[in-house]
Design goal:
This protein has 15 helices and two strands. By secondary structure, the protein is mainly alpha-helical. The protein has one domain: Orthogonal Bundle (Farnesyl Diphosphate Synthase), CATH 1.10.600. It has a two-stranded antiparallel ribbon. Strand 1 and strand 2 form a beta hairpin. Helix 4 crosses helix 8, helix 5 runs parallel beside helix 7 and helix 9 packs parallel to helix 15. The longest helix has 27 residues.
């Protein structure tokens, strides 16, 4: 039994049932759409987002029909954004599989993303789950704003640490926060507990993204993401941002020059990575990641001790100790 299977134990039967619920939510009478959505389901990842939804519901009360709707809504809208992202990024693979746009071209991929968005909207309306729709739609809005903010700042390479946190809060943490918030809401939790679970998700989402930043510098074995890929894409992440803050002007100018003009030169990127390590950028990012982890754990400590809380604690540790 791997770590995620162990974490999933308190909600194992619900996660199995969710798979059928989600398949039904994606079902279409159009044969091409049905073929593509079947492909999407077949290549699903670790299912961490539905796990956050179900565990949050169980922590705050009990899993209900609304919990299944919340998890499906999250997955539908999130999958739609991933399909659209692959088109924008001209990405031919995702998680080791061919992307939708690689197999069926951009036009079909965009239409599939639109279909998944509409299925999420219709599912929530059909079930009368307008609060869940508000929570998840807010997260998708923030994800788009975060991506645009990153694009705007990356052109100028002038991302401060505060701007970086704003970007990752919107791009990554907002969706994990929505998972936990919607799970609590679906269980009928109090407004105070729903807000606490939102904050829990936000903090673990921030820690999750910083861990991704660290993996890009070789501190792990991130499949499909070679070391330095963020630099090649001119993404300013926390280890580099901190390094630029502590270097003298000449050293700073050299590193910025690599990101601007030599970001595809493997040897130059290697030099930059080593400079970030030597300047303490990695250690600083780890400290910040641990701070967000501790904030998340402190929030969990305010809830009753049960199997869901234990699994969420383990999920927090899994998030920052993962190797890929």
């Amino acid at each position: 039994m791997d770590a995620l299977d162990k974490i999933q134990q308190p909600i194992a039967s619900e996660m199995d049932a969710f798979e059928d619920f989600f398949k039904a939510a994606m079902k279409s009478e159009n044969s091409l759409l049905d073929k593509i959505t079947h492909y999407i389901i077949k290549r699903k990842g670790k299912q961490m987002r539905p796990m956050f939804v179900f565990l949050s519901s169980q922590l705050c009360g009990k899993i209900t029909d609304s919990t299944y709707t919340a998890a499906s809504l999250i997955e539908l809208l999130h999958t739609a954004t991933l399909v659209h992202d692959d088109v924008v990024d001209v990405a031919n693979t995702r998680r080791g599989f061919f992307s939708i746009n690689a197999l069926w071209k951009n036009k079909i991929a965009v239409l599939v993303g639109d279909y998944l968005l509409s299925r999420g909207l219709l599912l929530s309306v059909e079930k009368g789950e307008f609060e869940l729709l508000r929570i998840v739609s807010t997260a998708v809005k923030e994800m788009s704003e975060g991506e645009l903010l990153q694009q705007e700042k990356s052109r100028l390479l002038n991302i401060t640490e505060d701007v970086y946190y704003s970007i990752i809060r919107q791009k990554t943490a907002s969706l994990i926060a929505a998972c936990c918030q919607s799970g609590a809401s679906a269980a009928g939790a109090s407004a105070e507990d729903v807000q606490k679970m939102y904050q829990f998700g936000l903090n673990i989402g921030l820690a999750f993204q910083i861990k991704d930043d660290l993996l890009d510098y070789g501190f792990g074995e991130k499949i499909g993401k070679p070391i330095g890929i963020d630099i090649k894409e001119r993404k300013m992440t926390l280890p580099l941002i901190h390094t630029l803050q502590v270097l003298n002007d000449n050293e700073k100018r050299d590193l910025v020059n690599i990101v601007k003009k030599h970001n595809t030169d493997a040897n130059k990127v290697k030099v930059l990575v080593q400079k970030v390590i030597d300047a303490g950028g990695i250690d600083y990012a780890r400290i910040k990641m641990d701070e967000f982890r501790d904030k998340a754990l402190n929030i969990l400590a305010t809830f009753p001790d049960n199997s869901a809380r234990k699994s969420l604690i383990e999920l927090v540790h899994y998030t920052i100790n993962r190797k890929k």
